[in-house]
Amino acid sequence: MSRQTFQQACVGAIAEAMRDDPNVIIMGEDVGSFGGPLQSTAGLWQEFGGEGRVIDMPMSEGTIVGAAIGAAMQGKRPIVDLMFLEFLGLIMQQLLDAGAMHYYSAGTTKIPLVIRAKYGVGPFHGHAYDLHSWAAHVPGIKIVAPTTPREAKAMMKSAILDENPVLFLEHMALYHAGKEEIDEDLPHVPIGKASIIREGADVTIIGSGLMVKRALQAAKILGQQNIDAEVIDLRTIVPLDENTIIQSAQKTGRVIIVSEAIRTANSAHEVASVIADHAFHTLKAPIKLIAAPSVPVPFHREMEKAFLPKTEEIVECASVLMGNK
Q1: Which residue in 102, 127, 132, 269 is the catalytic one?
Q2: Is 188 a catalytic residue?
Q3: For residue 153, which of 9, 97, 111, 149 is within the disulfide window of CB 3.0 to 4.6 Å?
Q4: How much is the pLDDT for 188?
Q5: CATH C-level class of 195-321
Q6: What is the pLDDT of residues 268-306, one digit of tens each?
């Protein structure tokens, strides 16, 4: 057992996979001796670079992902470090092809591809856009967004073993934000399974990434107001764990969904749709979505803070749903 940050947990999972399977390779810009953006590939060049399995690529994201898709079709298990989710627009055509290849080939071709992307407002100031909702509209793509170092490692293991393209989101505010004890034989976390990280009876708060941390802070404050909040970490955005979401909504009757992505066409609307379709008759109050405004992510530090959903907003929203305000 060792204490690891989110970043160390991701790299550790990749290193283990590369030791276990010579077909696992990693590709991207600056992934070699530089160690990747924010040290996202630290140490991999030293261990695997001599084998040609850590591949520094030119500054062409579409070329990188296109080459990785070809490698996956030929039996490799490529991992692409996209650097930042802000660059998602540069690879959308490739994502469409990767997600549809299983269908194009009548089920004969698999694309075991992981695309890593850092996102979110954090200490590094820049490239903060959370654009995952674009990818959520692409059939055949899975999207995971772990919150803790343990889950980052466990879900990276699952993503590498998956036979489908996986977009693996790494929040920059969580990347070096603290360490967690991680077992060497940590079991995989299945893709498509949410986690109830705090049980409650009065209101359900649903989120992923940094928003889970804020939901837990809000739940603690709400507890002091005799409001018992249940907190769900989605972990996987596509496919959604509908059963966990529905059962929690039916239990509490009140739901708040919190997202760092802009409100317009946010994937969180899919969560609300699932609840409306299957648990509407049990709701005691309207479903509430707290999300970023539909504006560009500000660069000024104080405006960044104002842009993000805040703990206080979640507390106030829960109080309103409970009829306290």
Answers
A1: 127
A2: no
A3: 9
A4: 83
A5: alpha beta
A6: 999 999 999 999 999 999 999 999 999 999 988 889 889
